[in-house]
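User: I'm new to structure prediction. If I give you an amino acid sequence, what do you actually give back? Let's try with this one:
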Amino acid sequence: MTALLHTDNISKQFGGMKAVKGVSLEIQQGEIHCLIGPNGAGKSTMFKLIVGYHEPDGGHIFFDGTEITQARASARVQRGMSIKMQKPSVFKEMPTRQNLHVALQRSAGKNTVASEEERLLALLGLEAQADKLAGLLSHGQQQWLEIGMALALRPKLVLLDEPTAGMSEEETFRTGELIKALNAEGMTILAVEHDMSFVRQIADSVTVMHLGEVFARGHINDIVADERVGEIYLGKSHGH
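Assistant: Good question. You get back a string of structure tokens that encode the predicted 3D arrangement of the chain. For your 240 residues, that looks like this:
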């Protein structure tokens, strides 16, 4: 089975610091894959390499059967990647519905924009907020709106960078349920996250990074049961 996203031995250094050292990842079509690890593990750098915000010093990246190692971020989006960074970047002075409208204009036909807006508002649980200015939504609601804007492009792969950062427990749980609903519709999702209870809620498979390298990978149950993973999270690990 060919992976939808495959990185082969990707490396990146900034000055003398090796942020990512020879990382290979495989994301299969239709799965929810979480990239996790303690702070400083290199997962945010890895995310930026995948989406094209950084260029790797070595290695290759393949998406949907094509090498995209040198492709610009915009070209990756056109190929079917949709990216949601950590801070919400919604149009705060526009109503919620209008935000979705702007995003949908790129992908939906004129006749389908209105029905797609309704579908996304329902999926996101934002029907009651449709006419509210996006800047007045709660932090969690702004994050959901931005996920909706990412979905408007009907991507093959949704990439989420710490989607629950700054959320309440309830909002975090609802975000997990939203991600699972999208996945049930056939969406492939890669999330960078460090909240383990959230990862347990959503993940099929997990790659753990530590000090710029792949530390462990496998099914979520195996990762949760791995004492070494618990140790790096709790900071007991000194070196390898």
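You can read the tokens as a compact description of the fold. Here is one thing that stands out. The domain at 5-234 is CATH 3.40.50.300 (Rossmann fold).
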